[in-house]
Amino acid sequence: MSFFRIKLERSPIGLSKQIRTVVESLGLGKRHSVAYCEANPISAGKIFRIKELVSVSEVEKVISREEERKARSPPSGFTVLHRRYPTA
């Protein structure tokens, strides 16, 4: 089963009540919030209504908020790329 990963890129402030209702029905609140919906014609129609406000990608499984945060964080520590003065 596939899902749509929807990220709200632009704010619906100043748009019609219908558009804001569609944004809320998809589970999106603030800018850069992420929601997952099943890939079906109903959710595709909702996404089509707000296509200028969101970015959409199709994924195979839903990722939790903690898993997304962990994937974005850089590895701990540091890596030496080049030494200016070589050690003996």
Automatic annotation (TrEMBL):
Organism domain of life: Eukaryota
Which parts of the sequence belong to the Large ribosomal subunit protein uL30-like ferredoxin-like fold domain? Answer: 4-54
Family of this protein: Belongs to the universal ribosomal protein uL30 family.
Alphabetically sorted, this entry's keywords are: Ribonucleoprotein, Ribosomal protein
Query: What organism is listed for this UniProt entry?
Result: Schizosaccharomyces osmophilus
* Cellular component GO terms held in the UniProt record: ribosome
Q: Where is this region: Disordered?
A: 66-88
Record-linked Pfam families? Ribosomal_L30
- Can you name this protein? Mitochondrial ribosomal protein subunit L30
